[in-house]
Amino acid sequence: MSDINEQKKLASELAAKLWAMANELRGTMEAYEFKNYILGLIFYKHLSDKTEAFLIEAFEHDEMTYEEAWEDEELKEELADDMLESLGFVLEPKYLFPNVIKMVNADTFTIDYMEEIIASITESTIGRDSEEDFKGLFEDMDLKSSKLGRELKQRGKLIGRILKQIDSISFEMGGTDVDILGTAYITLIGNFASTAGKKGGEFYTPTNMSKLVARLATVGLTDVLSAFDCACGSGSLLLQVGQFAKVRKYYGQEKVSSTYNLARMNMILHDIPYQNFNIINVDTLENDKEFEDEKFTVQVANPPYSTKWSADPKFMEDERYSPYGKLAPSSKADFAFVQHMIHHMDEGDSRIAVLLPHGVLFRGAAEEKIRKYIIKDLNYLDAVIGLPANCFQGTSIPVCCLVFKKERNGNSDNIFFIDASKEFVPGKAMNYINDEHIDKIVNAYTKREDIDKYCYKAYMDEIEKYDYNLNIPRYVDTFEEEEAVDIAANKQKLAELEAKEKVALDKVNSFLAELGL
Q1: With a cut of 70, which residues of the chain have pLDDT below it?
Q2: Tell me, what DSSP letter sits at residue 446?
Q3: In whole angstroms, what separates CA 291 from the centre of its chain?
Q4: What is the pTM of this model?
Q5: How far apart are CA 454 and CA 386, in angstroms?
Q6: Residue 384 neighbours by CB distance under 10 Å
Q7: pLDDT for 269-284, tens place per residue?
Q8: In what helix (H) or strand (E) does residue 464 lie, and over which residues does it extend?
């Protein structure tokens, strides 16, 4: 087994151990509710590990311990500044994970102490560049909740048990090619999403779908100045972009505050320096003030399908929507997300890969006008890819991936269609695509050559002929001819069977007559 495969195996094993721990400890609490405690405490352990790694380097040539340095006011101030510059936060000696575990083992750990640790981490960032990245980061880990126990002592016991279980699992995986803890963390988020039904789809895109979208968005790129997801959920899709190109800075918008916190944790846990990401908590479609002047190289997204939005007439003055002459309908915001993303495309070779319901391909009225403007006036739509049904949490509908490019590289006279709807592995609860399916889609997209019943290059005159309706079966003929039926032969066979039936029936009647029946 290759080193990378071995590391992926370790990540899978780590995720399985963490998931087993979550199920063992959650008691009567729903897994979806318990996720904030498990993910939050794993994140705290990660911050402690990062602090210890920093200290090993800081004290490499000194015999002094962290505790001793912290007692010296001058050294303490210098050390805190270095930690804030490098890590973005400070974790005092007494709050390091191993010291807390000692308290758990000595039965002196309390829920109040855990709250003290969290407050200390957050307060250490106030007035620093990392303040916004840590502000409210742990607020969904409600340590006062009666679901942890009616009494303070019970809550402390449960949190202590979680900490002890986390301590029993080895996280020693530095220097590997695969981000093992980060990969395990995303797998764990996926496990929690699968138990949350429709809610799970709000914060998680299945890993292989994320991989497909990221690969389509980065074809031919090795260096990405900025990557952006306008509905970033837990940040897992955004982080996938970094698996296929070097990303200088990550940007994200997320409406749900608890999911926004999860996205920031996910970034830090994947060792993305706080200076290299900017995730904000905002209703993307209604308020773009903070990012209104930002332009991005690569954009990926899996926005909520056909969600409602205000479609307030005032947005006809918003430069994200005004060029189209129409707003997306209030009952279906799909094109509003597309318009938002197109507005944020950088000059040059900027791209978008976005997952959307098939309705965007053919629905009429305002959506038809927006679709026509994108194709005819902007000419940014590069590919339409139909994906299998039942591949996402909370919905069984088939989804498509639209790829937009500002620089069409000689393809401005066509749009490439792929029908990958039959390319999947069936599962019990959901279907999924594997690496072979992803390779097939990406290779077809890259080559842009017709393959019978799979992909087709449609030129603009053909698309215009269909009134800019992009319904995939119009372009990719997947009809399978049935074998011709030989009516004469079937009639002959039927006659022979009827004759045999008559002989058998005559025999039965003869036997019955002999028996006097």
Answers
A1: 1-8, 25-28, 32, 171-180, 194-204, 394, 479-486, 512, 515-517
A2: H
A3: 21
A4: 0.86
A5: 10
A6: 24
A7: 899 999 999 999 999 9
A8: helix 460-465
3-state secondary structure 232-247: CCCCHHHHHHCCCCEE
The Cα–Cα gap between 418 and 490 comes to 39
Give the containing element (helix H, strand E) for 301. Answer: strand 298-301
- In the block, tokens 């979550």 appear at 22
Q: What is the pLDDT of residue 1?
A: 45
434 three-class SS = coil
Domain boundaries 198-474, corresponding CATH code: 3.40.50.150
> CB-side exposure of 472: number of CA atoms within 13 Å?
26
Element (H, E) at 161: helix 152-168
pLDDT at 200: 47
CA-CA distance, 364 to 476, in Å (whole number)?
21
Count of H helices and E strands in the chain? Answer: 18, 11
Side chain identity at residue 389, one-letter code: A
State the Cα–Cα distance between residues 247 and 311, nearest whole angstrom: 33
Q: Determine how β-strand 414-419 pairs with β-strand 223-224.
A: unpaired
User: Can you spell out the DSSP letters for 14-60?
Assistant: HHHHHHHHHHHH-TTS-HHHHHHHHHHHHHHHHHHHHHHHHHHHHTT
And the tokens for 477?
């003929």
> Which residue carries 């805190």 as its tokens?
80
3-state secondary structure 394-407: CECCCEEEEEEECC
Length of the chain: 517
For residue 121, the tally of other CB atoms under 10 A from its CB is 19
Q: Which two tokens stand for residue 302?
A: 């899996």
Q: What pLDDT shows up at residue 177?
A: 44
CA distance 118 to 102: 18
Q: What angle do CA 485, 489, 493 make, to 5 degrees?
A: 120
Question: Which of helix, strand or coil describes residue 392?
Answer: strand
Quick one: how far is CA 107 from the chain centroid?
39
How far from the centroid of its chain's Cα atoms is residue 253's Cα? 13
Helix, strand, or coil (residue 475): coil
Tell me how far apart the terminal alpha carbons of the chain are, to the nearest angstrom: 76
Question: Helix (H, G, I), strand (E, B), or coil: what is residue 281?
Answer: strand
Q: Which helix (H) or strand (E) is 465 found in, with range?
A: helix 460-465
Q: Residues with Cβ < 8 Å from 234, sequence gap 6 or more? A: 186, 189, 203, 204, 259, 262, 263, 266
pLDDT of residue 148: 85
Tokens 């994108």 sit on residue: 374
Report pLDDT digits (tens) over 22-60: 777 666 677 767 788 888 998 999 999 999 999 999 888
Class of domain 3-195: mainly alpha
For the chain, the maximum distance between any two Cα atoms, rounded to a whole number of angstroms, is 118
> Can you give the residue ranges of every domain in the chain?
3-195, 198-474, 485-517
